[in-house]
Amino acid sequence: MRNKGIPDVFLTFICNSNWQEIIVELKPDQTTFDRLDLIARVFQMKVKALLKGVTKIGWFTKVIKNIWTREYQKRSLPRIHLLLIFPPEQKISTIENINRLVSAKLPFPKNAPFFETVTKCLLHRPCDKEYPNAPCMVNDVCKKHYPRAFSEETTQGKDGYLVYHQ
Predict the structure, then answer these.
(1) Residue 84 and residue 90: Cα distance in Å, rounded?
(2) Which residues of 121-154 are buried (b: 16+ CB within 10 A; e: fewer)?
(3) Judgement on whether residues 81 and 5 belong to the same structural domain of the protein
(4) HEC per residue, 65-88
């Protein structure tokens, strides 16, 4: 893998126990965690579809190498971490390329199909001195550095991490 270059994308794909393919198969008295076999099967199908889309169909761009690993988070939900390497001519080397792949915005109205999922699963919940019991709070400071200042453009932060346009 190293001879192909540095990975361009680090993607995490997490199982959602509320996927319709899982929910419709449950008996009335079951929860998703009663059917870990079902969760594993549906997740594997989704992983195969993701890998096909990314590596064969080219959802991002051409991928010359990929590697991924599966792990299990709390309550036994699986996730994968996927590294993608693009050909030299398609490397992500500019802020414009980064903005094409990454968005820190909610670009759709509240009634759009994914709005509820994104806001429920992907947004950091309120935290600061007004929410001292938030799980991210340590010594009255958010360990994930929220709330963050808005940025008019994507830049590289002092710590080497990107500060995304919001």
Answers:
(1) 12
(2) eeeeeebeeeeeeeeebeeeebeeeeeeeeeeeb
(3) yes
(4) EEEEEEEECHHHCEEEEEEEECCH
Q: What are phi and psi of 48, to 5 degrees?
A: -60, -40
Q: Is residue 105 domain-shared with residue 88, that is, in the same domain?
A: no
Q: What share of the chain is helix, strand, coil (3-state, %, to 5)?
A: 30, 20, 50
Tell me: do 75 and 121 sit in the same domain: no
Domain, as residue range, for 119: 94-166
Rg (CA), the chain: 19
Q: Which pTM does this prediction carry?
A: 0.71
Q: Tokens at residue 13, please?
A: 């794909």
For every one of its 166 residues, what pLDDT tens digit does the chain have, with 9 covering 90 and above?
A: 667 788 888 999 989 888 999 999 999 999 988 998 999 999 999 999 999 999 899 888 889 999 999 998 766 789 999 999 999 888 887 888 888 777 777 757 766 767 777 777 777 777 877 888 888 888 888 888 777 777 788 887 777 777 777 6
